[in-house]
Amino acid sequence: IRRRVEPTKFFARTQEFIKQYRVGTESGIPVVEPPPGSDIYMTALTYQWIPVLRLRKGAEYTLHLSALDVNHGFSLFPLNVNFQVVPGYDYGLRVTPTEAGDFRIICNEFCGIGHHTMVGRVIVLDESGNEVGRSGGAQ
Ligand code: CUA
User: Fold this and answer.
1) Closest Cα to atom 1, ligand 1: which residue?
2) Which of 14, 94, 129, 139 can bridge 41 by disulfide, Cβ–Cβ 3.0-4.6 Å?
3) What are the pLDDT digits (tens) for 53-96?
4) For 17, left (φ over 0), alpha (ψ -120 to 50), or beta?
5) What is the overall mean pLDDT for the chain?
6) In degrees rounded to 5, what are phi and psi of residue 61?
């Protein structure tokens, strides 16, 4: 699904979501652990993905993804998920993590001077809610 949304409103909704489920902070970015089945929000802005998500393997979520300022590219590494994130649109994606681990979101659309540093993080916990170590995973 894709629907129009005011970028600042979407960002405000993201902040609200963060306030509700925040469990910590990592390098200045809030870390959020929403309950399985919930609607989750992520905003792309120069040059960050906010927040860091902690999700549960096997649980279904509706991921709302939008950009605050300019176009960004959502690329989930090492899974082969690529998505254009455009301000003014809320993309509601149904996601069910099938693998526990520590994943990176890379921006694959040139968005300015900090483009190459725009890296986000998604942590997928195992079914019992524990973090799993990934052997040889990039830090
Ligand atoms: Cu955001 Cu490149």
Assistant:
1) 72
2) 14
3) 999 999 999 999 999 999 999 999 877 788 899 999 998 989 99
4) alpha
5) 92
6) -130, 160
